[in-house]
UniProtKB/TrEMBL annotation:
The keyword Transcription applies. The keyword Transcription applies. This is Glycerol uptake operon antiterminator regulatory protein. Regulates expression of the glpD operon. In the presence of glycerol 3-phosphate (G3P) causes antitermination of transcription of glpD at the inverted repeat of the leader region to enhance its transcription. Binds and stabilizes glpD leader mRNA. Pfam families: G3P_antiterm (PF04309). It comes from the Bacteria. Keywords: Glycerol metabolism, RNA-binding, Transcription, Transcription regulation. It comes from Gracilibacillus salinarum.
Amino acid sequence: MELQGVLPAVRKMKDFEVLLKNDEQSLIILLETRIAQLPQLVHYAKKRGKRVLVHADLINGLKVDQYGMEFLVRQIKVDGIVSTRASVIALAKKNGIVAIQRLFAIDSSAVTKNIALITKSKPDYIEVLPGIIPSVISEIAEETKIPVIAGGLIKTEEEIASAMQSGAVAVTTSRRSLW
């Protein structure tokens, strides 16, 4: 699956409903949901022809181990996951779904440690947060040779353009106005 452009990330049911009706968006990233809601959300999204990525670390009630991943892949039928944990990335890759490793660029030490971790886990994509630091996006894209997605604190079209010019292939945002 090739990810590019603006990728909508959903926290609220109202936003989910808006995205279901939006024919321009073929992908939904689900954030902060409960395990009991997940089957229905993914079912409705798939029924509308959407691909679904879930932030595995933010699904309340789900333990993302071998069995949790099996549940996501075989029962829920997600198209991919987002996680900060290398073990979850490895499980996603083993199960043949898109694996996005989330990296928090809080300081240069964290970036260096995360790059070392990413070279081992080899995710399909890296999501860099906050996505408003062009130099960090460039650095991570150049050092890892893995496509970078910018996310977090992106509020304007100018910030989207800046992230893309810095080497991001896509931008995630929960701001409806930017979808």
